[in-house]
Amino acid sequence: MPQLCLLGIFAGILTGSVMVAFRLLLEFGALFFIPGDDPEAFETLSPAFRAALPLIAVTLIGLWLWPQPNRALKMGIGHVIERLAYHQGKMPLRNWINQWWVGVISVIGGLSAGREGPAIHLGSAASSWIGSRLRLPHNSLRVLVACGTAAGISASFNTPIAGVIFAMEVVMMEYTIAGFMPVILAATMGALVSWAVYGSEPAFSVPPLQLNSLLDLPWIVLTALVVGVLAGGFVRLAQGHPSLARVPFALRLAIIGLLTGAVAWWYPQVQGIGYDSLERMLNGPMALDVLLVLAVIKLALTGVCMAGGVPVGVIGPMLVSGAAVGAVMGMVGGALLPSVVTTPALYAVLGMAAMMAAALQAPLAALLALLELTRNSAIMLPGMLAVVVAVLTARQLCRCQGFFLSSLTRQGLHPLQQPLMQALSRVAVPAVMERNLVRTPRVIDHDRAKALLDSKPTWLVIIQEGKDKPPLAMKAAHLARVLHNEAWLAEHERIDLEEVPGQRLDLAPVHLEATLSEAYDTLNESGVDALYVEHTTAPMIRRISGIITREAIENYYRRKR
């Protein structure tokens, strides 16, 4: 635990620095063509230029990604969850580099894209790199990936608590004390790095709001229902249709660029993240047509990007669209029921949290983000109601499993593990393996046999002749038994360990850094009942560090349960 907490601090600092570098890169890119160096100020550009920007962006993205294999095109939070579930948290360098390019170009190029998804991928991969360089066991890599995720959210919004819950609820999909401590430290350090550069204020200012009357609650429920339906529709749209895979990648990019450019000609608010529009709608009235475009069209454009194969960040656009839906419902409620809906801005804030919760199926993360962004506990009661209704609507009415989980399920991946495998993935092989062993050739003399037992080993690892023959494991007690049998020794001048009465287990290799879930999978795939644990002590030199049996894994799980 102390070592993981120390690594969590380093991971938080590294991820916070990566997030700051990403934001600075966006601002640097805006220097070249956006007045005021603001990567959100698309309204200041001429209609023709801002409409052409998405076409330029998809061209640059396409030229960069086109020569690369499909596996290199996976980016964002979904990629982090996949690598965590199927690759023990190890992140490919090529995907990490691609995320820098696609993340920056998609935002400053005027696509409807966010910065949080890229920041989480970049931070998680950087944190995983720390563990890989230190050759940490894979269960520790999982914790470091969660540290990078929490620090990425924390540094982006200045919301460290929401970052911790987001990492556990959306990425890790579990809550453990061992995981919480390093992740909390990482989120804290990520926020501190962001504070040092951008100050301690949240990503956008929210006016003081409160629920003035319980009569608002029915309209809040109706607002949450609308948000839940839109969130479910967004997730389904972003999943795409299987027939899209047959459309050439270049054509899909062209469609994305043309659709975004056509809308941006009249409504530049749909471009980029949209936090400038979000702040305006939270602090004052906006035109109804702009709100409707942000509520529906911006959300749809983000979904089209994802369905078309451009892995943009989705959290920022979701927050903006959710706030717009809430603002529209607040305006409508204020016009129809002026005595009931007295605070329209309240609905924008609630819509923002409800959209995040419903689309990601992450109610706790959304509620804590709402609390930290508003710094107003009085808003939590209506917030809880709105979040629960929106999540249930998306889940039950639209059959929405959550944006990232749905994306992986569509690819045939199932990151939600069974309880056994999820529990075993938290434990490294050294926690269970039997270290008390000796290596021996198959045929030995009596003196060598007695010498082997001097150290009182539990296992004998029998090295067979021939490179293709795997080693065998035998309990040392079986050899000890025959050494006390004078009649048996008289018949055998030399001892062939394969002739000694007793059970011998075929062995398959597993690495010292593996988790128990990996070891269990290896046992099932290789059809053996025991594994020998390899440890690389020097280049090209491997030694056997221990033996782990199926029975030992199952007994460990029963004891912990």
Give the % helix: 55-70%
Number of helices: 23
Structural class: alpha/beta
CATH class value of the largest domain? Mainly Alpha
Oligomer: single chain
| CATH architecture field of the largest domain | Orthogonal Bundle
Topology-level CATH name of the largest domain: Clc chloride channel
**Could you give the count of β-strands?**
8
Q: Looking at this structure, what is the CATH superfamily of the largest domain?
A: Clc chloride channel
Write out the strand line-up for the largest beta sheet, numbering strands in chain order: 1-3-4-6-7-8
What does this 3D model show about the protein?
- The chain has 23 helices and eight strands.
- It is α/β, with parallel strands linked by helices and 561 residues long.
- The chain has three domains: 1-198, Orthogonal Bundle (Clc chloride channel); 215-411, Orthogonal Bundle (Clc chloride channel), CATH 1.10.3080; 422-559, CBS-domain.
- The strands form two sheets. A six-stranded mixed β-sheet has the order 1-3-4-6-7-8. Strands 2-5 form a two-stranded antiparallel ribbon.
- Helix 3 packs across helix 17, helix 5 runs antiparallel to helix 6 and helix 14 (344-360) packs antiparallel against helix 15 (363-374).
- It is elongated.
- The two termini are 21 Å apart.
- 48% of the residues are buried.
